[in-house]
Amino acid sequence: MRCDLMAHRKKHAPRHGSLAYLPHGRASKFLPRIKNWPEYDDSAAKLLGFVGYKAGMTHAVVTVDNPNSPFKGQETVIPVTVIDVPPIRPFSIRGYNVTVYGKQLVTEVLAENLTEDLRRVFPMPKSYDFEAKLQEFENQLDSLAEIRMLIHTQPRLAGVPKKKPDITEYKIGAPSVTDAFEYAKEILGADIRVADILEEGMLIDSIAVTKGHGFQGPVRRWGIRILQHKSRKTKRGVGCIGPWSPTNIRYTVPRPGQTGFHTRTSFNNIIVKLGERGEEITPSGGFVNYGVIRGDYVMLKGSVPGSVKRPVRLRFAVRPKRKHEVKPIQVSYVSTTSKQ
After folding, report:
1. b/e code 153-187 from CB counts within 10 Å (16+ = b)
2. pTM for the complete prediction?
3. Whole-angstrom distance, CA of residue 329 vs CA of residue 76
4. Which domains does the chain have, with CATH numbers?
5. H-helix or E-strand containing 9?
6. For residue 231, which of 160, 217, 227, 240 is within the disulfide window of CB 3.0 to 4.6 Å?
């Protein structure tokens, strides 16, 4: 019996964690950056995503509609993440061209009715000729390859304790550049609600900055085995970080460093529910460390990266499931019991 225990204690435990995420550096800011956009083949132009603030998690009872599931037609309990999504406001149209160095900004036009909260982010133009800039944009429309829009959030309408809006860029999905520009002119300076962009049952990607844990050692960072108590110099470290020759340390060796606060993407989160009254799904006493949702919300199946109050960018799925059918999910119950 003693030998079996010793053999189990000495089990080989290599580094855990994928090397595909290296380097494990801190994100530059709380709002993540999106580098890839999906192919959009619909006839109607649309912004390819939305942005909101993570409120917390609860659980819901839904009906299984998967025809291949042995529980088809039965109810099941699933964990859900609730995201507070107050209306966003597009305030700039941007035209891009493709160069040998990637996409390059060619021209831009700002909205006429800029909100006062934008002064907290950048100085507002004192005199701006909107019609002249719009005409200049239209003259260069034939040479553009892509249309994007700058949008800003309205945190005053959410449960986050700040007034400074978050500014981010979203691509417009459209059959052509002309259609994208016409759609951009329609929504420029107007409030856009989440129901105008997303729908229940569709797959989206959630991009956010994970919870930060600061500088940590290799045991916490990579999950390596703690050495025996008689080990020389250290127990919570690597026994050998490399040979004498060559005199370098390979990137595969677990080393201490930054843990958490990384930009991460959760693919193919299904939208369980879209709502306009956040009070109907807010737990008693509010979400822990967040409070009460007063307006629109998005309920996603499972968990998403990021901590409470952190901005979460929602994007149309870049690699959706081939046989996924977009249809509403039957929700019979959402838990509103206190999470305190």
Report:
1. bbbeebbbeeeebbbbebbbbbeebebbbebbeeb
2. 0.91
3. 12
4. 46-211+260-334 (2.40.30.10)
5. helix 2-9
6. 227
- Beta strands in the chain, from DSSP E residues, in sequence order: 46-47, 49-63, 75-84, 89-99, 102-110, 146-152, 167-173, 203-209, 214-216, 257-259, 263-275, 297-301, 311-316, 331-334
Query: The tokens of 136 are what?
Result: 């200049």
> pLDDT grade, residue 180 (50/70/90)?
very high
Please write the tens of the pLDDT for every residue from 64-73.
998 889 999 9
Cβ neighbours for 98, distance < 8 A, ≥ 6 positions apart: 104, 145, 146
Helix axes 177-187, 130-139, angle to 10 degrees: 170
Structure tokens at 258: 């930054």
- pLDDT at position 339 is 87
Residue 48 structure tokens: 């390819």
